[in-house]
Design brief:
It contains 16 helices and 31 strands. The chain is α/β, with parallel strands linked by helices. The relative contact order is 0.09.
Length: 616
């Protein structure tokens, strides 16, 4: 499971208040890697007072005042960070039990930059002058390899300005917000948070409650003044990457009502807004919390009951009746995301097909469906569907019973999925005594593993000829006493396959030195065409003038997990998008395809609730 990366910029005032330290600790507790960028205005002032040195400033032509950093001043600026700001951060985070690495970004060339052009300023007599020795610049290059190694080794890595000069001059002072944005893009961060002293970007500076909730490229400059201009600049720079970006506060990341979210692409029409935002928030398996929280807020704003349950699932409902229809989608995607973008009528982005399009449709149908007094419509966005744990679906199976289920997976708007193959996954390990490969009759651990995998595959396929098999992982390890090779053998098995028979075939007599472990044994499931749920979809297809295709897919979905204990519950899968694009870098969904599936789903849901008692 991939560990998400947060880049968080916090200024001196925020760090002094301390709340953000606990928020960082909470992120690491749920498995995130954290790169904290520390601003240092307060620490610099303290250091200069401590050494009795006046702080030099320049007055710019527009009237602004900036800290003046000639070469002789940079050593004192570095000392301020290394003696005041960074030790304070390290102390506070270590007090929370975290391991911490701190450094100014210039150390060892972790980040290098290029110097700004000469600065136009005003003399004490208000005469224009050009300042050529001001050591300010912009970050240009990041040593991503070393920083990723540090992020893997420590709970928190904390960097601060200055950065190294790419032309080998003295260090360059850089804006900390811009530094955070550059780091976010270079490291492929999942989330960027620029923490400020206000509740995000205010549309009215005199009203602390006037947070602008959503900003698109070019929007923020209309509302930004003073230091906030740099935050807006940094946020928009970060949109070149794929992180979800927010300016948060005051002095916290914990209160979404104080966030201004920056979105890199604007939906072509209002009815595609939820889809666009849902795809824009990264949610690789294990990193679903930000998306679940965002969607829960979206539901509550529209008067729906919504929560994030104890395993991280989004659960949203309307209606309180005893007849429950469950729409079960999933929040997570496979790894590797990229900047989301509308290209003509297609939304490109990881998860647009698998399966955020389906989940967005579920939530929009939930918001507008006609729920009778005796009915309840429940949407669950499950976690960890894309990995073997299926933690969210197992929790839904055991806690959210229903009379019928629609699984949110891409079938295409003109198809209905009636079932899925099952999953039979094995870990096979082979070990041999260490020895020279040139020895007579030598058999290496990989040799033994290959033979074992072939034998197991032959045995299982003899019992289930329609199954699909693939070796999906191989690792080797060499020790003083033994060599070991391990492979994961994956079978997709038809609904008719008997998993007990397959288990016996796989775990039969194994060669010496070979062990076999069953990692997952989830049966296939197919409900046929006779259920009331299939019938309401069939009528909805007919109403739309569509002659549907009914399919049983060779993949596996959360339908399989529910079917392990739910007997007699009608289940189908339906959702927009071409499933051939799942898990590819071509993943995209068309606006008209999304709308067509949403309309048909809404019709089917309303028809299900209108069925007479006893026919459901």
């Amino acid at each position: 499971m991939t560990r998400p990366l947060y880049v968080i910029k916090a200024g001196s005032a925020t760090l002094d208040r301390g709340a953000v330290h606990g928020e960082v600790a909470a992120l690491t507790a749920r498995g995130a890697r954290v790169l904290l960028v520390a601003g240092g205005a307060t620490g610099i002032e303290r250091h200069y007072r401590a050494i009795g040195r006046p702080m030099p400033h320049l007055r710019l032509a527009n009237g602004d005042s900036v800290r003046y950093c000639p070469p002789e001043e940079m050593a004192h600026l570095v000392d301020a960070y290394e003696r005041v700001t960074l030790p304070g951060v390290e102390k506070d985070l270590k007090a929370l039990g975290l391991s911490v690495f701190t450094a100014v970004a210039a150390r060892g060339g972790l980040v290098t930059g290029r110097a700004n052009r000469p600065l136009k300023a005003l003399s004490a007599e208000d005469r224009p002058l050009v300042v050529r020795d001001h050591r300010a610049g912009v970050p240009a290059d990041v040593d991503a390899v070393r920083l990723h190694a540090l992020l893997d080794a420590y709970d928190v890595v904390c960097l601060s300005p200055p950065v190294a000069d790419q032309d080998a001059g003295s260090p360059l002072n850089v804006d900390a917000d811009v530094l955070a944005a550059v780091l976010s893009n270079a490291l492929g961060a999942d989330h960027l948070r620029l923490v400020t002293g206000t509740a995000g970007l205010l549309t009215d500076p005199a009203d602390p409650r006037s947070t602008l909730p959503n900003a698109y490229p070019g929007d923020g400059a209309r509302y930004a003044g003073g230091r906030m201009r740099q935050k807006v600049r940094a946020a928009e720079m970060a949109l070149a990457g794929s992180a979800d970006v927010a300016v948060t506060g005051p002095h916290t990341m914990a209160e979404p009502s104080g966030w201004t979210r920056f979105w890199r692409t604007r939906e072509p029409s209002p009815d595609l807004a939820l889809l666009t935002k849902l795809v824009s928030v990264p949610s690789v398996s294990g990193d679903e919390a930000e998306l679940a929280s965002f969607l829960a807020d979206w539901c509550r704003e529209r008067g729906m009951a919504a929560e994030v349950d104890k395993v991280g699932n989004l659960v949203a409902t309307r209606g309180n009746g005893p007849r429950r229809l469950l729409l079960l989608g999933h929040l997570d995607t496979v790894p590797h995301h990229w900047p989301v973008a509308w290209r003509e009528d297609e939304l490109w982005g990881r998860g647009s097909v698998d399966a955020k399009g389906s989940l967005a449709n579920f939530l929009e149908v939930l918001a507008h469906a006609d729920i009778p007094e005796d009915g309840q419509l429940c949407v669950v966005g499950a976690v960890e569907e894309e990995i073997s744990s299926s933690k969210g679906a197992f929790h839904a199976r055991d806690h959210y019973p229903a009379d019928a289920v629609v699984i949110g997976e891409p079938s295409g708007s003109q198809k209905l999925t009636l079932g899925y193959f099952g999953l039979f996954k094995l870990r096979v390990s082979a070990s041999v005594v260490s020895g020279h490969s040139a020895g007579m009759d030598a058999v290496s651990a990989p040799d033994l593993l290959i033979r074992a995998l072939g034998g197991i595959r032959e045995s299982v396929l003899a019992e289930a000829p329609e199954a699909l098999s693939a070796v999906i992982d191989v690792t080797c390890a060499t020790g003083r006493e033994e060599h070991r090779a391990t492979g994961v053998l994956n079978f997709r098995v038809p609904p008719s396959a008997d998993l007990d028979v397959l288990r016996r075939a796989a775990l039969g007599p194994a060669p010496e030195g070979v062990t076999v472990e069953v990692l997952r044994a989830t049966p296939g499931h197919s409900g046929g065409r006779s259920s009331s749920l299939v019938k309401v979809f069939t009528r909805a297809f007919a109403e739309a003038g569509i002659r549907p295709r009914f399919v049983v897919k060779k993949g596996t979905s959360d339908m399989n997990t529910l079917a392990t204990t739910w007997s007699g519950v009608p289940m189908v899968a339906y959702g927009p998008g071409d499933s051939a694009l799942d898990h590819t870098d071509e993943e995209r969904i068309g606006g008209m395809e999304y709308r067509a599936a949403r309309s048909l789903l809404a019709d089917a849901v309303n028809r299900w609730f209108a069925l007479p008692e006893g026919s459901r």
